[in-house]
Structures are given as C-alpha cells and as structure tokens.
What we know:
The complex is a heterodimer of chains A (111) and B (113). By secondary structure, chain A is mainly β. In chain A, 0% of the residues lie in helices and 59% in strands. Chain A is globular. Chain A starts with a strand and ends with a strand. Chain B has one domain (4-112): Immunoglobulin-like, CATH 2.60.40.10. Chain B has strands at residues 4-5, 10-14, 19-25, 32-38, 45-51, 56-59, 62-67, 72-77, 86-93, 102-103, 107-112. In chain B, strands 2, 4, 5, 9, 10 and 11 form a 6-stranded mixed β-sheet that branches. A 5-stranded antiparallel β-sheet of chain B has the order 1-3-8-7-6, with no helix packed on it. The model of chain B has no long low-confidence stretch (mean pLDDT 93). At the A-B interface, strand 4, strand 5, strand 9 and strand 10 of A face strand 4, strand 5 and strand 10 of B.
Amino acid sequence: SQTIHQWPATLVQPVGSPLSLECTVEGTSNPNLYWYRQAAGRGLQLLFYSVGIGQISSEVPQNLSASRPQDRQFILSSKKLLLSDSGFYLCAWNGGGTEAFFGQGTRLTVV
Amino acid sequence: DQQVKQNSPSLSVQEGRISILNCDYTNSMFDYFLWYKKYPAEGPTFLISISSIKDKNEDGRFTVFLNKSAKHLSLHIVPSQPGDSAVYFCAASINFGNEKLTFGTGTRLTIIP
Lengths: 111, 113
C-alpha cells in the first residue's frame, strides 16, 4: 500500500533562517507530488506541484522553492524565512486519476 | 482568484440531523470534484468524489450532488455524528483527477450532541 511521510511535524524557526521540509512517498512510482499551505481564511493553497524528477511548477510567487531530486521525494525550501511563511504545510500525492493523499502536515512557526 | 468557493465558513448541526455543505466553482473546465475532511494538526483525508458525468454519488452516510449548470456541488451527511465535526474542503480538478487539485476555503462543521 502507498504511504506518505512528511517531517518534521512541528518547526519553530527564526526570521531569516533557512527551511527544508521533506516529503517521501512509498508504494508507488512516478506520483504527482504537491506542496500545499493552509492559512487562516485561505483554505488549502497550492504552492508547488511536480509531475516528475526535476519538474516543478510554482503556483504563487513567494519566498519558497521546491525540488524533486528523486521520484518519490519532494522538498520544500527557503533560503530566508519571513514571518508570513508561518503556516501549516502539507505534502500530497496522486497518480492515475486517483484522489490526492496527504501527509500529516508540518506546523511552521517563524518567530 | 478563488476558483472554488465555500461561502459558509462554519456550520452547526444537531446530532442525527442532516449536514449540508456547499461549494461553488467558476472554472467550467473542472470535471472531477472531491470532498476532504480535516481534523486540526492533521492532513486532510479523502471522503468522496464525483466526476462530471454524474450528478450524484453516494457512500454510506455521505452523498455528493453535482449541478453542472449551476457550477455547484454539495455534500450531505446523514445522520450527522459527533465524529463528523471537522473542517470540510471541497476540491476540483481537470482531466478527471489527473491534474492538480484546487481547494475551497473550507467549512468548519460542528455537530451538537
């Protein structure tokens, strides 16, 4: 069966520090991978999605970047965090027309 | 530009009654719609979906209705249970789910015992 792992679960980082959130998927190959952010009143905002290794589409201009170094690995990064980057970040995958499956999320607090 | 809208941020329903959550969309290219349930500090979990070739899909206590002409879908939960208290997101996709999901802003459902 397929599983998705996302870590860490919570993170407190100072403004200006770098960020790296990692997501891995098991039990499937060539998944579509997504990073979403949940912010108050904004629902689930799609940040990045990837249909393959090295293929990243950015949905909104921001202080974040994403990379897909391996088929089942998706990384969300920032060189310098802003206060506005605080939020709940969710990794998800889908493939073959199925619904998307989400990780448990990372609560990021930038202080 | 919010292509998927949930205009009710919150809803309270008595236990045992019907909960109806609504969702509207603007992009006529959407052909696949989903509902997700989310508890605090957890990832959303899939509930039920419907493709644009149908107008109704039922799974146990959950039924999703799609009105393509009105660009409107709804989720009915009958009977409502305390464990249904959560935030519900509707989502839409093109290419029958092979493309990225666009989510609504969510509706917080509270079931009153």
